[in-house]
Every structure is written in structure tokens, then in C-alpha cells.
Specification:
The chain has about 425 residues and is α+β, with helices and mostly antiparallel strands. The chain is about 25% helix and about 20% strand. Bound molecules: FE2/S2 (inorganic) cluster (FES) and fe (iii) ion. Fe (iii) ion binds next to α7.
């Protein structure tokens, strides 16, 4: 038996770290390097909150499914025969085998590979061989997972009781998403980027454009100014800012002509379903993410009629962001895969009738965000390595990193609430 160590300091707990978090500066190293914090993140953030997992366009027909791994959980998102998007735990009700192994596919029914229990895409058990007469199939449906299809964006919540303010947020956001008709869009392409960083570093990096000088492709169209107040504009940024003000005026006129307001909403850390919605002008031609803001697809999404429709930017806590443009949308989800790794899934959506090679090319459609994702990946990997260095100390956020602070504040608040 090992003797207790006399005089040793008590082990620091996750609660200690959370309690002493200092507002306005980056988190202490264990938030990015500790397996205990990672497990807390899975339990408190990913298993209790609404997380974005897929575009509804990834499951366009009944029987189409995707599977999503979140920590030890695996979830099936499937379109049922009534064309509703459903979500189930990817676990057989017999002896627990994983049901669907592939990331994506199409099924008539969901058949367990072990003893062939067979479920409908509505989750109901339809067939189980060699059961006694007393066996009641209705007691062994797949366990459902809370799911919302927000205008074509699919969110799930793994908790028994989901946070109840999702619907209130959806009510605000849905009218802004409506013109793009993402529910009937087509997936042009989707890919997973393995990030060498804790999931929070990927999110924090997304929440600021302080580093956007490192994104030459993105900033030919995107104004890296969304967090700036006029008084923050330095002489170096003034010409860019003047162009931004002019482009914002033009975008306001376009939206007014369509009877659509230019209203923004920001509740990133003031509610459980934290979100921010902004209508941002684009530089150059003002149409899309391409050199000089040119269009990348000839067919416009949904009921959008003007190519210079700006960028509807939506940020949702804890794991997603979205850019909706006149001619395509790009949707992003971040999921943790270990303490120091995560996966960023990026999906490009276009008009359902847009034809590759005719209306768009994958190279032109994806060039900006593939380059930007790669650049961000290097920044995140460098920060993960830095945070793991014993020489790391938390540093202060600049005046244009408010949304990083809001993300971290949202995160720490959830951890504090869970501990309380
Ligand atoms: Fe699925 Fe036996 S574990 S049928
Ligand atoms: Fe970036």
C-alpha cells in the first residue's frame, strides 16, 4: 500500500481552474491540455447543449443518414419517410452494438450487424428474430436524441432535457435564413480537417479577425473589420474602413429593396443558446468569397435575387459558424476528438439545380475557405503547442477580440452552472 504523501498540495481540480478564471484574458493551459478538463467539456458542453452537426441537405431523401461521433456518443441523423430529420443514439436496443458504421449513407431500414434487429428510419423496432410471444417490439425503439432543423441547419442535444431557449433563438434567426432555402440546397462538397488543437482553440481562432492578415485569399472579399468600432480604426486600416462603410451602405440599399432589414443580433454569452447574426458587406464586386468578391456559382440560392447580397454571418455557441452568400453557403462544425485534437467539418451548399462544371467548379467554390482553414489550422496547432509549453501564461485580449471573450465567458459560465 502506498503511504499518503505528507505535506503534498491537494490536486488542483477543474472547479478550481474554472473558479479563478480571469475575465479578459486567455484561459490557463490546463483548459487546453488536461484530460480532466476535456472530459468535463464532453460532459458539460457537448452532452448538454445544442450542437450543430450537419446540414439538412446532407440527408436530402428518406433513408439518407449521417453519423456523428461526440466523445463516447455516436448519433444517427436520418431523414424519415415523412421527410422529417430525426436523430437517434447509434446503439442497438438488443445488446448494444453500434448500428451504422459509415459516416454517411442511405438505408431502407436500420439493420443491426450483430443479430439483425431491424429498425425503421422512424426508430421503431420492426423485426427481431426468435423472441418469445411476450416480446413487445414497441418497448425497444431506438433512443431518440433531441433534434432541431433550423432552416436547413441540424442541431442535436444529447441531454435528457435540452436547454429550452433554442426555439426562441430560432424564431429570431429563421427569418434571416429563409431567403437562402438551405433545406432544399445541394451539398457541393464537404470535408473534414483534422486539427492539432483542443476544440476551444479552433473556436477562439474563429471568433476573431485580429489575425486576418494571415488570410490573403479571404480578405480580398471579406472585410476583417467586424469587431472594430470607428474609434479603433488605425491609420493603416482607414482606406479599408472607408471601402467598408461604402459597401455597407450599398448592402443596406439592396436589402431594403427586398424588404429585408439589416438588423444584427448579438447574444453570444447572455443566453444558453449563445449566437450572433450579422449582415456583412463584401469587398470588391461584393458578391461572394472569391478574389475581388466575384461570384462563384451562376445560380443564386433560394429566393435571393441580387448577387451582391452580402454575407449573412451566423455564429452559434459552442461549436459552429456559418456564412450565407447569394450564390452558396459554407457551414462549419467543430467536434472534439481528444484533449489536443478536434475535427473541423466544412460543407459547401449550392442551389439544388446548380451543376458542377456548368454553374460552378469545386476549385473556385472552395478555394477561399480551404486556404483559410489551412491557415487557421497552422495557427491553432501553434497555439496548442504554445499552451502545452511550461513557459505559457494567459495573455490579455485586444479591443477587437470581444467575441473570443464572449465565447470563453459562455463556456466558463456553463461549467460554473454545472458545478453549482
Ligand atoms: Fe443488435 Fe443484437 S446487438 S441485434
Ligand atoms: Fe482565421
Amino acid at each position: 500500500m502506498t503511504a499518503p504523501t505528507v505535506g503534498a498540495a491537494p490536486a488542483e481540480t477543474v472547479d478550481d481552474l474554472v473558479a479563478r478564471r480571469v475575465a479578459g484574458q486567455s484561459l490557463e493551459a490546463p483548459f487546453y491540455t488536461s484530460p480532466e478538463v476535456y472530459q468535463r467539456d464532453l460532459d458539460v458542453i457537448f452532452a448538454r447543449n445544442w450542437i450543430f452537426v450537419a446540414a439538412a441537405a446532407e440527408v436530402p431523401e428518406p433513408g439518407d443518414y449521417v453519423t456523428i461521433d461526440v466523445g463516447a456518443y455516436s448519433v444517427i441523423v436520418v431523414r424519415d419517410d415523412d421527410e422529417e430529420v430525426r436523430a437517434f443514439h447509434n446503439v442497438c436496443r438488443h445488446r448494444g452494438s453500434r448500428l451504422l458504421q459509415e459516416r454517411q449513407g442511405a438505408v431502407g431500414n436500420i439493420v443491426c450487424p450483430y443479430h439483425r434487429w431491424t429498425y425503421g428510419v422512424d426508430g421503431k423496432l420492426m423485426f427481431a428474430e426468435s423472441q418469445p410471444p411476450t416480446f413487445d417490439k414497441s418497448c425497444f425503439s431506438l433512443r431518440s436524441v433531441h433534434v432541431r432543423n433550423l432552416s436547413g441547419l441540424v442541431f442535436v442535444c444529447l441531454a435528457q432535457e435540452a436547454p429550452d431557449d433554442f426555439d426562441a433563438v430560432a424564431e429570431v434567426v429563421a427569418p434571416h435564413l429563409a431567403p437562402y432555402e438551405l433545406d432544399r440546397a445541394k451539398v457541393a462538397v464537404s470535408y473534414d480537417l483534422q486539427e492539432a488543437g483542443n476544440w476551444k482553440l479552433v473556436m477562439e481562432n474563429n471568433r476573431e479577425c485580429y489575425h486576418c492578415d494571415g488570410h490573403p485569399e479571404l480578405t480580398t472579399a471579406y472585410f476583417p473589420l467586424f469587431a472594430y468600432e470607428p474609434e479603433d480604426i488605425t491609420p493603416r486600416l482607414k482606406p479599408l474602413y472607408d471601402r467598408y462603410v461604402k459597401a455597407a451602405g450599398a448592402l443596406a440599399e439592396v436589402r431594403a429593396a427586398h424588404g429585408l432589414p439589416l438588423t444584427d443580433h448579438r447574444e453570444l454569452d447572455t443566453r444558453v443558446v449563445g449566437y450572433q447574426l450579422s449582415h456583412l458587406p463584401l469587398d470588391g464586386e461584393g458578391k461572394s468569397f472569391a478574389p475581388d468578391g466575384a461570384a462563384v456559382c451562376t445560380k443564386l440560392l433560394g429566393s435571393v435575387q441580387d448577387a451582391a447580397f452580402g454575407d449573412l454571418s451566423l455564429h452559434m455557441q459552442p461549436n459552429s459558424w456559418f456564412h450565407l452568400l447569394s450564390d452558396h453557403a459554407v457551414v462549419f462544425s467543430v467536434l472534439p476528438t481528444s484533449t489536443g485534437t478536434s475535427v473541423l467539418r466544412t460543407t459547401w451548399l449550392v442551389h439544388p439545380d446548380a451543376v458542377e462544371g456548368v454553374d460552378y467548379t469545386l476549385d473556385a467554390l472552395t478555394a477561399v475557405w480551404r486556404a483559410t482553414n489551412d491557415q487557421d489550422r497552422a495557427l491553432v496547432a501553434g497555439t496548442q503547442a504554445g499552451c502545452a509549453n511550461p513557459g505559457y501564461l494567459p495573455g490579455p485580449y485586444s479591443m477587437v477580440e470581444d467575441d473570443v471573450e464572449a465565447f470563453v465567458n459562455w463556456y466558463v459560465t456553463r461549467l460554473r452552472e454545472a458545478s453549482a
